[in-house]
Amino acid sequence: MLKKRSLANLPTRIQKLERISRELKGPEIYVKRDDETGLEFSGNKIRKLEFVAEDALSKGCNALITCGAVQSNHCRATAALGAKLGIPVFLVLKQNQEPDYIGNYLLDYLFGASITLITEEEYNHRRGNVMLRLRDQLEKKGLNPYLIPEGASNGLGCFGYAYAIEEILMQEKEFGRHFDRIVVATGSGSTLGGLILGKELFEHPGEMVGINITADAPTFQKRISLMLKQALEHIPNHQITKAVNSSGSHPLFAQQKINIIDGYVGDGYGKSTQMEWDFIKKIAQQEGLLLDPVYTGKAFYGLVQEIKKGSFDQDQRILFIHTGGIFGLIPPQGLQR
Ligand SMILES: *Cc1c(COP(=O)(O)O)cnc(C)c1O
Question: Residues 64-93: pLDDT tens digits?
Fold first, then answer.
């Protein structure tokens, strides 16, 4: 339907988490290993960037500009993508002081990305302008840059996880059963947005659930609803686009239908509590599975708490998407005692 540049190792495997499922006596928990998508550990980001890369290259662009936090996984994945494609990458990063070369920032440097640091204040209010100015400067130098929004969270970025649903449907055929809920950490929104789009495009019967690790549920419901509207512009002749447009509004993607479980942001984006660290350690030892502190650690913790509260039926099957983020585990945050 929509063209992509094939860069990820797909399909990613699905594993059952036997011991934690047994301990909780709740639904069966499975994990889809999107931490193994490749492109130097790009996690969930590479599925979105496959569509972004195709769009950029088909438009004749020969440089990429994007933005994020100084330890952004998305920026590091974009830096890796640029190196892979052989085109320069320009990152606008939110950081008040000169950062140490650790974690993702070190990898940005190794991949050869050019970096512009701006203050948090400037980032929050004027990053769009900063990126446009950068684009103008690069154009004057003869480059044709392509702008990618934070987290590649726009309409196009949603197609990465829309197609992941097609992949999951194929895997479910082998298992002989559908997953009742597909759960993911939500940070900028297009992973969950993509799953919701995929549910409609490929008719998946399950419920798509996000657990936000920053901001709050209403913020993401609004943002994702908008993103889905933008996504439909990429498939103008699709029956879903026609149905949504003819109804005047977009009932399929109404804000209140976007399921976000709020309450697991903890101390805030990129900050971990002792409880969260204890949980990451528990899962590492119980299942031999490493979660990251910024996204999957919080979201999986949230999922387990919800199971303990009885929010999910015992006979359900849950698929948690492991979105990656391994580099957040070592120096950037590390275990503080
Ligand atoms: C970016 C990211 C997410 C969140 O995905 P969004 O599409 O931004 O909501 C989740 N997990 C990891 C490891 C990430 O890097």
Answer: 999 999 999 999 999 999 999 999 999 999
